[in-house]
Hints:
single chain, mainly alpha, globular
Amino acid sequence: MDAHQFKILSDRLLQRHYAIGLNDTNLVERGVVERYIANGEEPFQAVNDHAIKFDLDRVDKHDTMGRRVGSILTKEDQKSALESLSGNSPLKVRVTATAPGV
Length: 102
């Protein structure tokens, strides 16, 4: 996955699970993304780092009282975000072709 693809998927995860965009994080910076890629980390892990650092609660998870709760993203959350991207997206085509477990 290249830096552009990493950013697209990170943005989708941020929007879906935290209601913020890539521009609200340091993941907008190419150097930050390239470090994650060089370390073999995936977008969901980068988003988790941001969420933990800033104590973000997921907008899609609530406790029994209806309060938002913090919980980390999983590989399944990333897979779901990837699947939600357009079928013609170069991200989906390339990532699926190179990493079928994503």
